[in-house]
Amino acid sequence: MSTFSIFLVLITIVCFLLIVVIMVQNPKGGGLSSTIGGSQMLGGVQKTTDFLDKSTWTLATILIALILLSSLSFTGTLSDTDSKIIDNTTTTAPVAPIQNTPDATNPAK
User: Fold this and answer.
1) Per the similarity annotation, which family is this (predicted)?
2) Number of Cβ atoms within 10 Å of the Cβ of 77
């Protein structure tokens, strides 16, 4: 398994986690904090909101870092190192030899 494939799997996992964390939040303050009900679970509503906010920023930062690192490790078939155009310009086609034929306008006597 190549390094790029490993980064691709990690990016997919982080994207899924980021989607889940964002979907749990509610911009009006409802979200997960309204379903908990009391302040007994997870240290209260404010700490739940702080946790979701920090986890969103952390996952977004990890996602950006993984994308940048994966671009450095990409050595796919579309890279410029194996360009067929550059290889074809260095080789030239052989020139056909010129044949000396007698002129047809001046017949031999």
Assistant:
1) Belongs to the SecG family.
2) 5
* HSE, side-chain direction, 13 A CA sphere, residue 65: 8
Residue 57 lies in a domain: yes
What would the pLDDT profile of 14-40 be if each residue is shown by its tens digit?
A: 999 999 999 988 766 555 555 555 444
The range of the structural domain enclosing residue 65 comes to: 47-74
CA–CA separation, 35 and 79 (whole Å): 50
Q: Whole-angstrom Cα distance, residue 39 to residue 56? A: 22
* Domain count within the chain: 1
Name the DSSP letter for residue 26: -
* pLDDT higher than threshold 60 for residue 73: yes
Q: Is residue 37 part of a domain?
A: no
Q: Which residue from 61, 63, 53 is spatially nearest to 22, judged by alpha carbons?
A: 53
Percent of the chain at pLDDT exceeding 90: 27
φ, ψ at 52 (rounded to 5°):
-65, -35
Residue 59, domain member (yes or no): yes
pTM of the full predicted structure?
Answer: 0.54
